[in-house]
Amino acid sequence: MSDKPLAGRIALVTGASRGIGAATAKALAAAGAHVVITGRKVKDLEGVEDAIHAVGGTSTIAPLDLTESDSIGRLAAAIAERWDRLDILVISAAMLPVLTPVTQIEPKQFNQALTLNVLATQALLAAFDPLLKRSKHGRIIGLTSSVGEAPRAFWGAYGATKAAFDNLLLSHGQEVERISQTRVAIVDPGATRTTMRARAYPGEDPQTVKPPEDVADRIVALLENDFSNLHRERVEISA
After folding, report:
1. Residue 97, Cβ neighbours under 10 Å: how many?
2. Which of 177 and 69 is assigned the larger pLDDT?
């Protein structure tokens, strides 16, 4: 197999300014893809781009807030104008509301999480569906959480958004299965050393869980070896 198995492919990674999104963007670029990296903080995106370029990869920064109504459409139009297709869409951006009993969920935070984790996901699928269908190997990978499938006390707000996230992706995968080459996969990273996990488990030693690079490597392996439509898996790698 070539040392650049994804050479020539155009990838878009949301939430690419840090954590799993940043690690995935770097890994995709190392595998040869040109990666469009999105996030709200330009400085953080520039750091990811510098790391990509330092190892000979290529990328394009696209700073945006996925919760702004027109931002996704503008990004899709820009990618369509430059490349006229999208080969890989990795949906990594997500918001974790404060962990609390269901009866005490803070409405504003819940709404923000629903907007980013659910509404923005639908908007991404709608905006990039035509570009993915123009690819010979359009692939969508969504990063989920086990609490979307297995409810857990105090995680109701986040779990509800991830349950909806999973449903949207898998429904879309069924809808495009017979009319395009697009395939959809959902990956649960499991316990991973991220800022989000540090907020959820403030007393945990981060060295006891795997780094984001382990998840990124698994995502790239999925794309290199390809996967069947509606594929689901949990990344279980020891730290």
Report:
1. 21
2. 177
The residues facing 62 across adjacent strands are: 38
Token pair in block for residue 218: 């698994």
Helix axes 107-114, 156-176, angle to 10 degrees: 20
3-state DSSP call for residue 124?
A: helix
The residue from 110, 155, 158, 165 that is catalytic is 158
| CB 61, CB 75: distance < 8 Å | no
Spell out the residues 6+ positions from residue 124 whose beta carbon is closer than 8 angstroms to its own: 14, 66, 72, 89, 91
Per-residue pLDDT reduced to its tens digit, 52-94 = 999 999 999 999 999 998 999 999 999 999 999 999 999 999 9
Nearest to 94 by CA among 116, 69, 68: 116
CA–CA dist 80, 74 (Å, integer): 10
pTM for this structure?
0.96
- Does the active-site annotation cover 201? no
Question: What burial letters (b/e) apply to 29-48, b meaning 16+ CB within 10 Å?
Answer: bbbbbbbbbbbeeeebbeeb
Q: Please state, rounded to an integer, the average pLDDT across all residues of the chain.
A: 96
The predicted structure's pLDDT at residue 220:
97
Measured CA to CA, the distance from residue 115 to residue 37 in angstroms comes to 20
Domains of the chain, each with CATH number or no CATH: 10-234 (3.40.50.720)
Q: Which residue has the tokens 């990956």?
A: 187
